[in-house]
Amino acid sequence: MLRGMTPAKQPGRPRAGIDAAVFAATLSTVHELGYAGATMDRIAAAAGVAKTTLYRRWPSKGALITDCLLDALGPAPLEGVGREEVMATAIRWVAAEIGKPGVGAAFAGVFVDAVNDPALRAILSTRLQDPYRIALQDALGEPENRVLLFIDIVVGTLLHRLGMTGEPMVDADVTALVEMVRHHFG
Amino acid sequence: MLRGMTPAKQPGRPRAGIDAAVFAATLSTVHELGYAGATMDRIAAAAGVAKTTLYRRWPSKGALITDCLLDALGPAPLEGVGREEVMATAIRWVAAEIGKPGVGAAFAGVFVDAVNDPALRAILSTRLQDPYRIALQDALGEPENRVLLFIDIVVGTLLHRLGMTGEPMVDADVTALVEMVRHHFG
DNA sequence: CGGTATCGCTACCGGTGGTAGCGTAATTGG
DNA sequence: CCAATTACGCTACCACCGGTAGCGATACCG
Predict the structure, then answer these.
(1) Least confident of A60-69, A95-104, B8-17, B153-162
(2) Range of A108's domain?
(3) What is the dihedral of CA A134, A138, A143, A148, to 10 degrees?
(4) In whole angstroms, what is the distance from residue B105 CA to residue B112 CA?
(5) Which residue has the least CA–C1' distance to nucleotide C27?
(6) Taking a contact as any Cβ pair under 8 Å apart, which residues of chain A between 54 and 93 contact chain B?
(7) A56 beta carbon < 7 A from strand D?
(8) Is residue A149 in some structural domain?
(9) Structure confidence at residue A115 (pLDDT)
(10) Residue B2 confidence (pLDDT)
(11) How many domains does chain B have?
């Protein structure tokens, strides 16, 4: 079994532990200057790292943002949640995350970059969406296509509101969204 | 009354009727090269027009795309539709429009530009969203905030699917969306 | 005609994602 | 201590993009 094995030591200088600093710098820069304003130069400067180092670790700006979102969101908080409450919990969690500074704008930005960049779309789908989709399938026992539709509805609705108004969705509307989804999928 | 008055002739050379050519060139360029690839230079070249002429008529790329979408969509086809069927008709119409070549990508692109550009957000909200929102309020008799939530759900869901998969939503999923919304708002 | 406003064109600006190459620092194995 | 190896910071660079300035030419009104 390979599980649990410590990887063999490689020769050469080891990579510095800069990921946490880079992710924090990315989110705060996106928060302050928006997705387009958060340039790779600025992110590198805010993280105290050379721009070339960023490109040694991530193949593109979109890939960096995707990893940053993955780190910021963490696993879906569905531990011990009863099946009846899984969808409501997921919706309120996503709404709260998208409301955090920088997260929503980063999400929307990497999203549109993906519309015409198949490589980025693959990264986004595989690294970011798939884990949550699988967790939801396990928790709900619903087939894949229904879970995918659920994700489209929840994330799409919340991002559309953010893009149109510049502000995250208020609680009353999130509750209405929860009720609608509950009646249809529940 | 001012209605029906022919505007007083202005001195100077009149504007050439290039809007139709520009809109057609914009959509086809976005379709071929994506939102980011559809540069103002390329759109101008495809329309047979100088780039500076575009900037004389539209203040930014986002504003041009917004007007282009407004022209491509036209008024919502809700004439003579019974109140029960207004939402279903609107959803299927939006789904079909977003599936047309270039329209979905243009929509998603101008959208993310708007997240951090308040001027563009105002244009998008006033010129594109408001007419359809008002038409829906009239047809449905629902309050503004509920119609706005409806628009977020429909447009957001369809755009999220497009961004994530690169393909418009298939009919079966559109039907599921219609059913869900019908039970909640109906 | 003269006045006026638009058009096409060229040239330009600051900035952006992304790359190449260099010297240097950090680690492993002998 | 000495090679080999890998990552780092830095500078320079590239093609390209949104947007602007200024020019002469053109089309209309009175």
Answers:
(1) B8-17
(2) 19-185
(3) -40
(4) 11
(5) A13
(6) none
(7) yes
(8) yes
(9) 79
(10) 44
(11) 1
